[in-house]
Amino acid sequence: MNYSSDSLLRARVCEAIQEHYCLRFEGGDEYDAVPAGALRWSAELPAVGDWVRARRADATLALIETVEPRTNSISRQRPGGGGEQVLAANVDLMVIVMGLDGDYNLRRLERYLVLAAASGVEAMVVLNKVDVCTEWPARLGEARAIAGNAVALSAHKSVAPIVEAVRGHTVVLLGSSGAGKSTIANALLGESRQVTQPVRESDSRGRHTTTRRMLIELPDGGALIDTPGLRELALWAGQESVDDVFASVATLARQCRFHDCAHGGEPGCAVSAALKTGELEPARWASYQKLLAEARYHERSVDQRAAAETKRKWKVIHKAIRHHPKYNR
């Protein structure tokens, strides 16, 4: 094989650690890879799930030249701020895994669903560990009221309820450490590929058994992206995505007598009336307000960053023009 060839081959990113990657070419070969010079200075480097064009530099290393346009991406704000962090790209289904122990949290579930809405990816909720929770039917009903598509299971016994949903698709598993993502991944793969550990009994918290995002081919077709547990999930989403997840709440808010209603007991406030009658739960209303405020802040921040970047580019252009020989005669 001639590794010095300039021909570009299509491959998919299986792992990404800073600027070091693992690629799987369409023929099945896996190579370590790094970005080529031009790509290294681009605005966005590849993420797990991306399709790229690369050339083989030698028998073990490839150079990534370009990244194909994404069909979608699932992103959050980087922990501590600092812009967008792409968790997975080109995904067909987001499987949100939540343990039925101390990990169960409807408010956090709503946050995951907003991320799914922002990316345009279908979401499925998996309530794991039914064997430790006698109240799992009621909790499944609560999850379905929010998400629609939700199932309950014990990953140690069977993952049959999600097998058909993932077959032939690219699926990303998201959830907290200890929720059972790696156990579900092993069951779908039919082998113990991902390391698992028990959670702490005191708070049902798990340790990061999966330390990096990785894409693994499924035996029945498709691919699985397993991810480390997410302890921070700052939104990278706009107001429209929040309204999609809280559709009934957003509809109520639009039914108030005054279009600028603050929903604090004003005359004709549909939200206040719904809270009083019990039609709207106070916790869900508070969650909607919190996520909407985050989404509005995100939109303002993105606009400001875009304006600053545009200003910076024009400053560079004007400086280049001033120093052009044509204007220095």
Structural summary, described in words:
This protein has 329 residues and is α/β, with parallel strands linked by helices. It is flat. Strands 10-9-8-11-13-12 form a six-stranded mixed sheet, sandwiched between helices. A five-stranded mixed β-barrel has the order 1-2-3-5-4. The chain folds into three domains: 9-67, Nucleic acid-binding proteins (OB fold (Dihydrolipoamide Acetyltransferase, E2P), Beta Barrel); 73-226, 3-Layer(aba) Sandwich (Rossmann fold), CATH 3.40.50; 239-317, Ribonucleotide Reductase Protein R1, domain 1 (Orthogonal Bundle), CATH 1.10.40. Mean pLDDT is 87; it is low at 1-5. It contains nine helices and 13 strands. It has helices at residues 37-40, 106-119, 136-147, 160-166, 181-189, 239-245, 247-253, 270-277, 282-322, and strands at residues 9-17, 20-25, 30-35, 51-56, 61-67, 73-77, 84-89, 93-99, 122-128, 150-153, 170-175, 214-217, 223-226. Strand 1 and strand 2 (20-25) form a beta hairpin.
